[in-house]
Amino acid sequence: MSHTAHIPSHRKPRRSASKLAVRAGVAGGVLSTLAMAGTASATPAEPSAETLEMPVLDLDLGAGVVSAVSTAADNSRAAAVEGELTAQEETARTGAAAQAKKAKEDAQKKADAEKKAKAEAERKAAAERATRNDGRSSLTLKNTTNNDTPTKATGSAASIVNFARAQVGKAYVMGSTGPSAYDCSGLVQAAYRQAGISLSRTSQSQSLAGRSVSLSNLQPGDILYWGSKGSAYHVAIYVGGGKFVGAQNPRTGIVERSLSYDRPTGAVRVL
Fold this sequence. Notes:
By secondary structure, the chain is of the alpha+beta class. The chain has a domain at 155-269: endopeptidase fold (from Nostoc punctiforme). Helix content is 45%, strand content 13%. The protein has helices at residues 17-40, 61-130, 155-166, 184-194, 203-206; strands spanning 171-172, 181-182, 211-213, 223-226, 234-240, 243-249, 253-258, 266-269. A hairpin with a 2-residue loop joins strand 5 (234-240) and strand 6. The termini are far apart. The relative contact order is 0.10.
């Protein structure tokens, strides 16, 4: 029997498995240290009857886990915020592009509408200028020759004059070129067509046809115009005897009038 058998054991009750595992690791390290110290010592140590009590190492494993989880959560929140900001920026860019496109389309529509309104206003103004008031004061033509003296038209001029007079009483319709209705330039164009002469369609271009002649030296078949040459708003045909035939306006239709009724601005001769 061992000479220490009579010494009661001081071993404590068993610890939990987790603490035993930690103690085992620590004990291994301590025993290794003691073994190295014993080897270096010159005097052998006396055997001890006491059981070594291993220190309990309480590791705060939860703090590390909490820290890691907190860091991961912070990273997730930061990533979410960054993603949200990126999405907001993209939405803002998309919205700005859409607004710019809409603004451009609205501006183009407004410009088109203004252009159309301007053209319509000019057309109405021309039609109003062409409208003649039968009750207005007559204008006297000052000229050096007697345009009231009947002049007989011959050749192509006769064809033009006869056609124009044959249309008197028909309706005035803007844009019409016959045979039941005409506007001013449509009548002049149709009359010249009877003489085999092709004229442009508008009063502006007809006022540029042929060569300019004085209102005091008119001949049957000459084209009379009102307004500036090249931008005339009304035309008619001089038929001799100080008179003209023209498609005046929707109220009067095609009429034959004296030059004193409404003095032309100028005249051109194509024949």
